[in-house]
Design a protein that fits this description.
alpha+beta; Nucleoside Triphosphate Pyrophosphohydrolase; 6-stranded mixed β-sheet
C-alpha cells in the first residue's frame, strides 16, 4: 500500500495521470470509492479536486468544442446558385424545415435521456445539463399557406442522411404550432436560442443558432438601404437583392471577450440586467478601424478601467453567439505587474502565469475605476476562491450569491480552463523556478497547496481577537530540502479572551505534524456578514501588532464579494 501511495504521489503532479488513475479504478469493481481510502489525505483530496470537478470538455484528450459549433450539416454552398436544385430539394420527401417566428424557434420536448454525471462523489461539477428541447421539423410543402414570402425557404445545408434542411419564417405562430401538432408533435414551444441554448443538444443548438441568425439578418434587410426597394431572398437565402442580382450578404458582428488576469487574479464584471448572482468576463464589440487586440485593450479600459498590456493579449478560442449573429472571439490578457510584484520573477516565481497561492503574501491586484454606464459592478476574483466556489463543501465565503454563465457560454469555458489548467495562456512567457534545480517544484508546490484542506482564513462573526500566523512545512526525515515561500493564515475567534487562545486553537488545527505555526502579531476584527463588511484594527499585547495590510490582502482574496474590508492601526 505504501508503494501505491508513493507511486500515486509522483503521478499526481500530472493532470493527465490523474485521469488515467480515475479511468483505471472506475473500471474496477467498487470504482473510485475503493481507491480513495487507499490514498493519503493529500493525494485523495488532490485527486478529487483536480479531476472530479473538471468539466469533461476540459479533460486531457478531449476536443475543445464550443457550444453552437457542432453543426451536423454540409452547408453545400456550391448549390446555393442552382435554383433548380434548390426547388428539387424543397419538393423532396426527405426535406425538412425548422420553423422561426419573431426571433424564436419552434421546439418540442426532447426524447433523449437527460445527461448524468459520470461519477457521483462529494465533489460534482455543475456543468451537467439535461437536454430539454429539440427542434420541430416540418416538410416544406406543409408550410405553403403560413410561410412569410418575404423570407421564403432558407437553405441551411444537407444532413448526414442526405436530407436537405431549410429554415422558414412563418407569419402566424399559433398556426405553425397547430400545424406541427397535426404532423405528430404532441406539444410545442417557442424558445429563444440565446436564452435556452444550454437546454438544447449541441448539434441542434448549432442548427438553431445558424437558422436564427440567418432569419434575423433577413428581417433587418427586407428593403434596400440605398433605394428603399423591397428586396428578395437569393442564393438559397444567403443573399438579398432586386431583380435577381445578389447585392447584400449576411454579416456577423465580431465581439471580443477577455480573461483579464493579474497573476492568479481575474477580473469579472456584471450588468444590472443579469440575474442577481451572475458574474462573467469583460466583453465588447469590435469597432471599425481597430484590430482585435486593440479592441481587447479598449474594452477592458472602457468597462472596468483596467489597463492591460497589449503585448500580453493572446487568442484563446471563438464561438458563434446567437445575439443573434455575433462571433465571440476569446482572448487572454494580463495587467502589467507592479514593481513590487514583478520582484517575484527575480526570485524565480512565474508571476504572470500565476503565482502559487502559497507564495502570494505580497501580491494584490491594482484597483480600477469601473464605468457605471457599462457595468453595475466589477471585481478581482482569486483563482483559489473561484475553484472553491464551484466545489461542494469547499471554503468560499459568499459563493451562494455567486454564479457564472452556463457551460454553453464562451466565458464559462474560458474561466474553467483558466481555473483548471496551470498553463493557461495568461501570458506569453514562462519563467523557470529556481528551486534547487528541479523545475517541477513550482508545480508540486501549487499542487500541494491546492490539495491541502487547511483554510487560509477562518473568521467568526462579530467583534473578536485575531492572529496572523506563518506556517512552515516540517521536513520529514529523509526528504530533500526545498526552498519555498512561507504560507500565512488568519484566524479570528469570538470565543477567545486572549490572543494566545487563537494561536493554541490554530496549532491544534495543524495537529497532523505537517506545519509549524509561528505567530506574526494580532489585533481585532469586526466582521458583519449581513452588511458584508470587515474592519481590521488594534494590536496584541502578547505578540505585537499584526501587519493589518497583509491581513486585508488575504481577506480580500477570500471575501471578494464584500462591500468593504478596511484597516486601522489605531484602537485595541
Amino acid at each position: 500500500m505504501n508503494r501505491l501511495r508513493q507511486s500515486l504521489a509522483q503521478q499526481i503532479r500530472s493532470t493527465s495521470a490523474i485521469y488515467r488513475i480515475c479511468d483505471s479504478f472506475s473500471a474496477r469493481p467498487g470504482g473510485l470509492p475503493l481507491l480513495l481510502p487507499r490514498l493519503g489525505k493529500r493525494e485523495s483530496t488532490s485527486l478529487m479536486s483536480s479531476a472530479l470537478s473538471t468539466p469533461e470538455y476540459l479533460r486531457p484528450g478531449m476536443t475543445f468544442q464550443p457550444h453552437y459549433t457542432d453543426l451536423q450539416l454540409d452547408r453545400a454552398a456550391i448549390l446555393r446558385k442552382e435554383t433548380g436544385k434548390l426547388q428539387e430539394f424543397i419538393s423532396s420527401p426527405k426535406a425538412k424545415t425548422v420553423i422561426m417566428h419573431g426571433g424564436k424557434c419552434l421546439v418540442r420536448p426532447a426524447e433523449t435521456e437527460p445527461q448524468q454525471p459520470e461519477i457521483s462523489l462529494p465533489i460534482v461539477a455543475d456543468h451537467q445539463t439535461a437536454v430539454q428541447w429539440e427542434p420541430v421539423y416540418m416538410a416544406p410543402s406543409s408550410l405553403a399557406e403560413i410561410l412569410d414570402e418575404r423570407y421564403q425557404q432558407l437553405f441551411l445545408g444537407v444532413d448526414p442522411d442526405g436530407s436537405p434542411v431549410f429554415a422558414a419564417v412563418v407569419e402566424k405562430a399559433d398556426e405553425a404550432a397547430a400545424s406541427a401538432q397535426q404532423h405528430g408533435s404532441c406539444k410545442t414551444e417557442w424558445i429563444s436560442v440565446q436564452d435556452e441554448g444550454a437546454n438544447v443538444g449541441a448539434a441542434d443548438a448549432a442548427l438553431l443558432a445558424y437558422a436564427g441568425g440567418l432569419a434575423s439578418w433577413h428581417g433587418n434587410h427586407l428593403f434596400m438601404g440605398t433605394t428603399g426597394q423591397q428586396s428578395q431572398p437569393l442564393l438559397g437565402g444567403h443573399s438579398r437583392g432586386v431583380g435577381g442580382t445578389p447585392t447584400v450578404f449576411p454579416r456577423i458582428d465580431p465581439a471580443v471577450i477577455m480573461m483579464v488576469t493579474y497573476g492568479d487574479w481575474a477580473v469579472l464584471g456584471r450588468q444590472a440586467k443579469w440575474p442577481a448572482t451572475r458574474w462573467s468576463l469583460l466583453a465588447g464589440f469590435v469597432e471599425i478601424g481597430e484590430s482585435l487586440e486593440q479592441a481587447v485593450v479598449r474594452e477592458s479600459e472602457e468597462e472596468a478601467g483596467v489597463k492591460i498590456d497589449i503585448g500580453s493579449v493572446r487568442y484563446h478560442s471563438s464561438q458563434p453567439w446567437p445575439f443573434p449573429q455575433s462571433l465571440m472571439l476569446g482572448f487572454m490578457a494580463s495587467v502589467p505587474l507592479s514593481e513590487q510584484d514583478a520582484d517575484w520573477q527575480s526570485k524565480g516565481w512565474d508571476s504572470k502565469q500565476g503565482v502559487p497561492s502559497a507564495a502570494e503574501p505580497e501580491v494584490e491586484p491594482p484597483a480600477f475605476d469601473r464605468n457605471d454606464d457599462e457595468l453595475s459592478d466589477a471585481r478581482w476574483f482569486h483563482k483559489d476562491w473561484l475553484r472553491n466556489a464551484h466545489m461542494k463543501g469547499a471554503f468560499a465565503p459568499g459563493k451562494e450569491d455567486f454564479s457564472l454563465p452556463g457551460f454553453e457560454a464562451q466565458a464559462r469555458r474560458m474561466i474553467d480552463s483558466w481555473m483548471i489548467d496551470p498553463h493557461s495562456p495568461s501570458s506569453s512567457s514562462s519563467a523557470s523556478p529556481s528551486t534547487d534545480g528541479d523545475p517541477s517544484d513550482l508545480q508540486e508546490l501549487s499542487t500541494q497547496h491546492a490539495a491541502n484542506p487547511i483554510q487560509d482564513v477562518h473568521l467568526d462573526s462579530g467583534s473578536f481577537k485575531y492572529m496572523r500566523m506563518r506556517l512552515r512545512h516540517i521536513r520529514k526525515p529523509g526528504a530533500r530540502p526545498r526552498r519555498s515561500p512561507p504560507r500565512y493564515v488568519v484566524r479570528g475567534l469570538n470565543s477567545a479572551e486572549y490572543h494566545r487562545e487563537v494561536l493554541r486553537a490554530t496549532r491544534q488545527e495543524m495537529d497532523d505534524g505537517s506545519f509549524q505555526v509561528e505567530p506574526c502579531g494580532g489585533g481585532r476584527i469586526e466582521h458583519n456578514p449581513e452588511q458584508k463588511t470587515i474592519r481590521v484594527f488594534g494590536y496584541s499585547v502578547e505578540y505585537g501588532q499584526a501587519d493589518h495590510a497583509e491581513t486585508a490582502k488575504l481577506l480580500r482574496k477570500w471575501y471578494p464579494l464584500y462591500n468593504s474590508i478596511d484597516i486601522s492601526n489605531e484602537g485595541y
